[in-house]
Amino acid sequence: QSVLTQPPSVSAAPGQKVTISCSGSSSNIGNNYVAWYQQFPGTAPKLLIYDNNKRPSGIPDRFSGSKSGTSASLGITGLQTGDEADYYCGTWHSSLSAPYVFGSGTRVTVL
Amino acid sequence: EVQLLESGGGLIQPGGSLRLSCEVSGFTFSSYAMSWVRQAPGKGLEWVSSIIGSGTSTYYADSVKGRFTISRDNSRNTLSLHMSSLRAEDTAVYYCAKDPSDYPFDGFDVWGQGTMVTVSS
Fold first, then answer.
1. pLDDT digits over A60-84, tens only?
2. What residues of chain A have any CB closer than 8 angstroms to a CB in chain B?
3. A2-21: pLDDT as tens digits
4. Cβ atoms A29, A100 nearer than 8 A
């Protein structure tokens, strides 16, 4: 069971917006930066958002991140069929048994 | 261009050992922490281990502590993961990942393509 909780799936029609939530605690999200990763089936994850809301070079501004308290969110606007993938949040966790933790993952489906 | 290329995966019997390697290029290897992250079939991502740029500090998930050893050779731009006493639950795709700084646990900005490890008799 993941320390960070994400909905298993979200869906929307092309052109619409989806928001993926990531719920944690003061031991992780509440006091640390959050990153988001995109993973297409059979491929490696890719960094999408870092430091809560920053995009690496080449990531379109349709993707945005935010954080409030012990929760974070990833927003995708102008949804495209090419956005169908799994999305994971991740952050530092104040536990030596697992200093970095990932969310359970959310599958985005474009209807 | 930053590239990470894993190798060494395969089929191994329970209790056996395996060594994974990750050859990197395109950045100053010794200046960055590096990590291994795994993904069991059909499951989510799990952080496994990290090592700082100098190699003097290492970190492990409880699930692999005492069985896995992470190391790096900065002269050869290579990261390694030696895995022993392997169990069925270690079956996963193992990804080599670059940290954005020499401080681990800040996320992973570049990932390799992964190498599959299957532990089965």
1. 999 999 999 999 999 999 999 999 9
2. 2, 33, 35, 37, 39, 43-47, 50, 56, 88, 90-92, 96-105
3. 889 999 999 999 999 999 99
4. no
